[in-house]
Amino acid sequence: QLQLVESGGGLVQPGGSLRLSCAASGFTLDYYAIGWFRQAPGKEREGVSCISSSGGSTNYADSVKGRFTISRDNAKNTVYLQMNSLKPEDTAVYYCANRDGSSCSLFFLEYEYDYWGQGTQVTVSS
């Protein structure tokens, strides 16, 4: 069964850090770009970041540039999202998904992604 599983979410104070993981089972991530999305209460899901299959290219939403870093370890079949300097507006359910292709062109387009994880909650609050 093809599956993506996110982990690493939780409650953190403003200014804190979290690292999210996206682990794949049933298939290898090597050939796919991987994206991270998030959905805050009452808002539409939005693209956060994407990493190409090789890891050589990354993209970020303007709202997280300079604070979030996406990376991948293909040997572990896992993609990470390091989130620093977290703000209350980063509170959301975070999802990872594998893109139908190796690049991150127009990474925010949800229809370009095939499989989605179930999401992990990130809450930034004092």
Features:
single chain; 126 residues; mainly beta; seven-stranded mixed β-sheet; four-stranded antiparallel β-sheet
Notes on the structure:
A hairpin with a 4-residue loop joins strand 7 (68-73) and strand 8 (78-83). It contains no helices and eleven strands. It is mostly beta strands. 0% of the residues lie in helices and 48% in strands. The protein is globular and about 40 Å long. The strands form two sheets. Strands 2, 4, 5, 6, 9, 10 and 11 form a seven-stranded mixed beta sheet that branches. Strands 1-3-8-7 form a four-stranded antiparallel beta sheet, with no helix packed on it.
What is this structure, in a nutshell?
With 126 residues, the chain is mostly beta strands. The protein is built from no helices and eleven strands.
CA-based gyration radius: 13 Å
The dominant shape is: globular
Mean pLDDT: 96
- Cα(first) to Cα(last) distance is 39 Å
What proportion of the residues form beta strands (DSSP E)? over 45%
Question: By helix and strand content, what is the structural category?
Answer: mainly beta
Poorly predicted sequence stretches spanning 5 or more consecutive residues: none
Order of SSEs, N→C? EEEEEEEEEEE
Number of helices: 0
Number of strands: 11
Largest sheet: number of strands, sense, barrel closure: 7 strands, mixed
Tell me the helix content.
under 10%
Give the topology, please.
Layout: E1 3-7, E2 10-12, E3 18-25, E4 34-39, E5 46-51, E6 58-60, E7 68-73, E8 78-83, E9 92-99, E10 113-116, E11 120-124
Parallel strand pairs: 2-11
Antiparallel strand pairs: 1-3, 3-8, 4-5, 4-9, 5-6, 7-8, 9-10, 9-11
